[in-house]
Specification:
10 helices, globular, 2 domains, Arc Repressor Mutant, subunit A, single chain, disordered N terminus, alpha+beta, Beta-Lactamase, about 280 residues
Length: about 280
């Protein structure tokens, strides 16, 4: 078992978060020029979940900035610690970005509370354990434990995935404000394979079932060998602030039997979050 919270993983995750699941940063244009901060952000926005290292020429082409401008801005980011140049001449997200990401209040306290329960859930199941929050119509993974002998999953810290296609996403969506649910239901539902829910009517029924049972089941919606079991995590005000899940093999005959353990761990996190204000935490 390995808790995925290393600097490298978090750096790549931050890059994925900046890309916001493929939604590019919109630069601020003043007249015919793009502001310097917007140019800096466009460089960071070039880094995505699928690509985390670039040469200067590649960054120039990807951002549309002149090579001389890219060289200057990348140099400033490197000097500040936002980018790091490897021996291969490629630039990667630097540790200074990791330090900034660690200061994000939305995830830090939640992760601290959730980690003991996630560890207990891992010890009980020896499966991949994941924690995510909602950002718009995406689920964003803020912590995970990778099972040593569990199936390989594509999620990582900071990764964005559509709410309709994962266990944590379905749990987050089922307990999201009605306006968020209707926005997702009214939008095209991205298909990853033949098992992905793409019918709004089916998704609506699935969300109703999640609310009824308190557990979200996502069967091979992204990968053909993955079955995810998610449950909502509630904050001090009673609203859903996160979702917890495990990801097991779709061939595991015991996969459904893990639902009570996932729900119990999520409720444990919820109780700790609810009680934290009373303890002054």
């Amino acid at each position: 078992m390995a808790l995925i919270a290393s600097g490298a993983a978090t750096a790549s995750a931050l890059a994925g978060a900046l890309a916001s699941a493929g939604t590019a940063y919109a630069p601020v244009v003043s007249g015919d020029s793009v502001s310097v901060p917007a140019r800096l952000l466009s460089i960071l926005d070039a880094y995505t979940q699928g690509r985390s290292a670039f040469t200067l020429s590649e960054l120039s082409r990807r951002t549309g900035l002149p090579l001389t401008t890219t060289h200057r801005l990348v140099g400033e980011l490197e000097q500040w610690g936002g980018l790091e140049r490897g021996a291969d001449g490629h630039y990667r997200i630097g540790l200074r970005m990791v330090e900034l990401a660690a200061l994000c209040p939305r995830g830090t306290g939640l992760r601290d509370v959730a980690q003991p329960f996630m560890q207990d859930l891992y010890e009980a199941t020896h499966q991949n354990v994941q924690l995510a929050v909602r950002e718009g119509t995406d689920g964003v993974y803020i912590e995970r434990i990778a099972g040593r002998n569990a199936i390989t999953v594509r999620t990582r810290i900071g990764a964005h995935w559509p709410l309709h296609a994962t266990g944590v996403g379905l749990a987050l969506l089922a307990f999201a404000p009605p306006a968020v649910q209707e926005s997702v239901l009214a939008s095209p539902l991205r298909r990853f394979n033949q098992h992905t829910i793409t019918d709004p009517a089916l998704l609506r029924r699935t969300l109703a079932e999640v609310r009824r049972t308190g557990v979200a089941l996502s069967d091979r919606q992204i990968d053909d060998d993955a079955y995810s079991i998610g449950a909502p995590v509630y904050g001090a005000d009673g609203g859903c602030v996160a979702a917890l899940s495990i990801v097991v093999s779709s061939e595991d005959p015991a996969r459904v039997s893990w639902s009570p353990a996932v729900r119990a761990a999520a409720l444990g996190i919820s109780r700790r979050l609810r009680d934290a204000p009373a303890r002054g935490g």
